[in-house]
C-alpha cells in the first residue's frame, strides 16, 4: 500500500536513483504487519524471549489490546 507520494520529484530526479538529501518519491508499507520497539527493565528480561506471545496496550487506543509475537531480544552490557 502506498501511504505517501511526492507530487513532484524535483529537478533531475530519476526513478532508479535514490538521493540521500531528497525525500522518498513513495512510501510503501504493509499495515497488516507492524513493528514495535520497547524498553524493558533488567528485572523483566527473564520474561522476554524470542517467540513469546505478548499483549500490548497503548494510551492511544485505551480500549484495545493488540496481540503480538516477540521476534528479537537485544541486550546491552
What is the 3D shape? elongated
Poorly predicted runs of 5 or more residues = none
Number of helices: 0
Total beta-strand segments: 4
Question: What is the gyration radius calculated from CA atoms?
Answer: 19 Å
Strand order in the sheet with the most strands: 1-2
Fraction of residues in H or I helices: under 10%
The fraction of residues in strands falls at: 25-35%
First and last CA, distance: 39 Å
Order of helices and strands: EEEE
Average pLDDT value?
Answer: 78
Structural category: mainly beta
Largest sheet: 2 strands, antiparallel
Summarize the structure in words:
With 77 residues, the protein is mostly beta strands. 0% of the residues lie in helices and 29% in strands. It is built from no helices and four strands. It has strands at residues 2-5, 26-28, 53-58, 61-69. The strands form two sheets. A two-stranded antiparallel sheet has the order 1-2. A two-stranded antiparallel ribbon has the order 3-4. It is elongated. The relative contact order is 0.17.
What would the keywords be for this entry?
mainly beta; two-stranded antiparallel sheet; 4 strands; 77 residues; 29% strand
Amino acid at each position: 500500500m502506498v501511504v505517501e507520494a511526492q507530487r513532484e520529484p524535483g529537478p533531475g530526479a530519476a526513478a532508479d536513483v535514490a538521493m540521500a538529501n531528497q525525500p522518498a518519491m513513495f512510501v510503501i508499507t504493509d499495515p497488516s504487519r507492524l513493528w514495535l520497539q520497547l524498553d524493558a527493565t533488567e528485572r523483566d528480561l527473564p520474561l522476554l524471549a524470542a517467540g513469546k506471545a505478548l499483549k500490548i496496550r497503548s494510551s492511544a487506543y485505551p480500549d484495545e489490546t493488540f496481540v503480538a509475537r516477540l521476534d528479537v531480544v537485544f541486550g546491552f552490557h
